[in-house]
Design brief:
The chain is globular. Helix 1 packs across helix 7. Helix 1 links the parallel strand 1 and strand 2. The chain is built from seven helices and six strands, in the order E-H-E-H-H-E-H-E-H-H-E-E-H. The protein has a single domain, classed as Rossmann fold (3-Layer(aba) Sandwich), CATH 3.40.50.360. By secondary structure, it is of the alpha/beta class. Strands 1, 2, 3, 4, 5 and 6 form a six-stranded parallel beta sheet that branches. It binds flavin mononucleotide. The site of flavin mononucleotide has 16 residues, from helix 1.
């Protein structure tokens, strides 16, 4: 039903993304989950295998933590190599046309830090504009990204870290949003 591209370079230590993936696995949705860091620990991406996976699905969720106000390197490399000429763009590059593109990000920082007067001065929406354009360039249907803030185990400015139970509970709530979005898209497709 949907493809989940998980991009987390340190999944063993993850709380948020690990919980999200566990919850997605427990959902009754028919998902193909590809952990690209585990598949390609030396960053040698099997481009053909990834393109074939993309072709199998109408909806693709890119699930990752926000690193240095950007995508983790493995996901940037994935776009560089898998979204290649005459596949994702170019005169014959329409293989992803019309597919749903969903970015699901976890951040360490709190929501309040992503505003003009906040620590990071810009909204996540602004930081992810280039990813939105990547989707449009590949003729994909860009769906509003879903963000899960305050997932740091170090806490934030003037804010102690949330207890692990709470981090997990928040990640479970976030997964419900993903599941409901996927169900809505599936319903739209059927009608
Ligand atoms: C290398 C690195 C860079 C990070 N950069 C940011 C950042 O720019 N903004 C932010 O909000 N959090 C940042 N974080 C925090 C992670 O986004 C946060 O720990 C992660 O989303 C939590 O998910 P996890 O439990 O699955 O690892 C960074 C973490 C690491 C390790």
């Amino acid at each position: 039903m949907a493809l989940i591209i998980l991009a987390h370079p340190n999944f063993d230590a993850s709380i948020a993304n690990k919980t999200i993936i566990e919850e997605l696995n427990n959902s009754n949705l028919n998902l193909e989950i590809r952990d690209i860091h585990a598949l390609y620990p030396t960053y040698k991406i099997d481009i053909k295998a990834e393109q074939e996976a993309l072709l199998r699905h109408q909806t693709i969720v890119f699930q990752c933590p926000f690193y240095w106000l950007n995508l983790p390197a493995i996901l940037k490399l994935y776009f560089d190599e898998v979204f290649e000429y005459q596949f994702a763009y170019g005169s014959k590059g329409d293989k992803l046309k019309g597919k749903n593109f969903i970015l699901s990000l976890t951040t360490g920082a709190q929501k309040e830090e992503y505003k003009i007067t906040g620590k990071h001065h810009r909204t996540i929406y602004e930081f992810t504009k280039n990813i939105e354009q990547t989707a449009y360039y590949a003729q994909m249907n860009y769906i509003d990204p879903i963000y899960l803030h305050s997932m740091s185990t170090h806490g934030g400015p003037g804010q102690p870290p949330l207890p692990e139970d709470e981090l997990k509970a928040r990640a479970k709530e976030h997964t419900k949003n993903i599941v409901s979005l996927l169900a809505t898209l599936q319903h739209q497709k059927a009608n």
